[in-house]
Amino acid sequence: MCKTVMLCIRKHLEQITSVGPRTVGSPENEITTVNYLLDQIEQIRSESKTGPHFITVDIQRPTGCFSLGGFTISCYDHVTNIAVKLQPKTSAQHFMLANCHFDSVPNSPGASDDAVSCSVMLEVLHSLVNLSMPLKHGVIFLFNGAEETKLQASHGFITQHPWAQQVRAFVNLEAAGVGGKELVFQTGPENPWLVQAYARAAVHPFASVVGQEIFQSGLIPSDTDFRIFRDFGNIPGIDLAFIENGFLYHTKYDTPERIHTNSIQRAAGRYICELVCAVCVLILSWVITLLTVLFVALLVKLMGRSMFWYSYFYAAICLYGSAAIGIIVLIHTLAKTRCRVRRVDLAELFFDVSLLLWCCVLLFLTSRGWCSAYLPMMMVVFPLISKLLLSRHFRARGATLQYSVLYLMGLAIPYIHIMFLIRVIFEVFTPILGRSTSETPPDFIMALLVALATVILSSYFIHFIYLSRSTKWILAVLGSVFTLMFVLVGCGLFFPYSADPSSPRPKRVSVQHITRRFHSLNGSLQSSDSGFCINNQDYTGMQHITPYIPQINDSICTLCQEQLPYYGFPRKSWYLPAPEVSPKAPLEFQLLSRQETEGGTIKMTFEVKGPSHMSLYLHPHAGVSLSSWSFGGGTPGFNLSGKYFVFYSHGLDAAAWNFWFEIQVGLNASPDEGWISLAISAHYFSGSDGRSEQLESLLKRFPAWVFPASWISTYHMYRY
């Protein structure tokens, strides 16, 4: 018996992560972790025999398909769920669902994502069992074993398990970082009582509607089981996640020891004209500021210093922030010198402009029904109260030290809150930008974020630019800071990556040792090759890796051929020739039948036997359309590029993967090259098939600050 709950949680966490990565279909996930969880649950159940509750355990291994939107279909077969029902011995009609997932991404121990949540749930179950008074309602604890594979296990539970019909609300425990406070970043749909209950129960509640609206807008490239329970179960819930130190998310550094124990109206006439002119000046200053920081970011990119801020975040604040503040101060200083108006009147005018613009933002957000409208409300109410209280003092004495102190005190509450939110935004987006594969330079996004933060925070401080007699010393200091930082960045002083164990900033790459086989229209092997497909997971490409491994350079960079579905690897990759791979359990693929239907379509049925992770790519040729298939309801998702992708994973002892599709052949279709290209990729993540001597040799050559996610793949392309 553990002395404290914290020690028990720590013990569970270390036991779960001690087996290493827990990918779906691996023995570590499907056997070792499942057995450990069942053993702990059985020990807890033995204690419930004398209490007011009883426990029911059910192991579910569902099979199914569902659409993730767009053209992606997620299919699964015999994935694992451990469902534990806790209810009073007098029975219960309604249940709350608590969800975590114990699987992890390849090559990561997944301590925060999501072993720690499962460890917490075990102890919550243990604590509730030992209550002396029975619960009014029951609780279902779902330990799901396939979240990282497109949220599959939660879909299997909420759509197929008989207990799902009794669930009235849920709490989903997730991670977007390693440690820190858990942020409530999604709630609903509707049902505000959930948030109220959370606020009453949590010792230190931490939530933001801003986080919810940013996450649900699609800006953050991630998703959680919350979506499955909400969309497929129509159940209200709360989504909690760790957000601190997202640099370690989905890497080998996500280990147990890194999870800390302690996370206004005025008169019309001339004033209106002055107000309009002042609004134009303010907006012009913002536009020029944004263009300036974008130009600086472009220079950084052209110098080959992209992502210097990844390891040195405050260097970006100093570089882009000094440029943004300097431009704002310079433009308003020039405007002040060209206006024949008293400095006091100009200061008051631009205060009113800032107030007016924040009112416009408040009205817009309120009209759209956005809960984050409370932010501009704070930026309207507190400054307005300050002005009303200080107006007589300001008119009588001008900008005295006493006035300045009182003015700043009036802004303290909204500014402290907004700066806190800005810090959270940077903490979330900095690691996301560092692992973005978008063609848009992340330096542009970082520069824009810093500039936008500067614009927001400067709104009511422009008041002081017009009150000051001179801004020369401010511009001199900002110019000096910018020049110094620009020179240091240009000299390469701020290297983007770090292998420092206390604060790692890894560069992510994926390395597939792949063998590709291309078959002709009659099924014979047309060509084949083998090599290392190296895919970059951030913007800098291989420029920092080439000095360590000269063979990996832009001369071997390859792009996807449009006529081949996905070409066997991502659209831009570095392909280094290597010996052929020979998995002990090779992919088995065959066409079972081909027939013409009464509707004039051609139906093809296939059978696939292979590893736990496989991908299917379909590319109808010109004049041919995909009319129906066996995935996700039978209607293919519309895709502008004309290509379709199906991701498939299975647990242990799964049957062969059988599927079919129908194609409609138009009059302009040419049979010479076939009507459809089909490619099947098999990915070996675990066991001896997931490694090769050549792959291990290559991985050892990468520098310490590189985190290479590696596996073995085979790719077969057919035409029909």
From TrEMBL:
Per UniProt, residues of the Endoplasmic reticulum metallopeptidase 1/1-A TM domain are 271-489
Which lineage do the record's taxonomy fields give for this organism? Eukaryota, Metazoa, Chordata, Craniata, Vertebrata
The protein here is known as Endoplasmic reticulum metallopeptidase 1
**Cofactors named for this entry:** Zn(2+)
Family, similarity comment:
Belongs to the peptidase M28 family.
Residues passing through the membrane, by range: 275-300, 312-334, 346-367, 373-391, 403-425, 445-466, 473-497
Main localization, broad class = endoplasmic reticulum
Stated membrane topology is: Multi-pass membrane protein
Where does the Peptidase M28 domain lie? Answer: 81-268
Q: Which residue ranges does the record assign to the Endoplasmic reticulum metallopeptidase 1-like C-terminal domain?
A: 504-718
Q: GO:BP terms for this protein?
A: proteolysis
Q: Where in the cell is it found?
A: Endoplasmic reticulum membrane
| Keyword Glycoprotein on entry | yes
Sorted alphabetically, which keywords does the UniProt record give?
Answer: Endoplasmic reticulum, Glycoprotein, Hydrolase, Membrane, Metal-binding, Metalloprotease, Protease, Transmembrane, Transmembrane helix, Zinc
Q: Which InterPro entries match?
A: ERMP1-like_C (IPR053973), ERMP1_1-A_TM (IPR053974), Fxna-like_M28_dom (IPR048024), M28_fam (IPR045175), Peptidase_M28 (IPR007484)
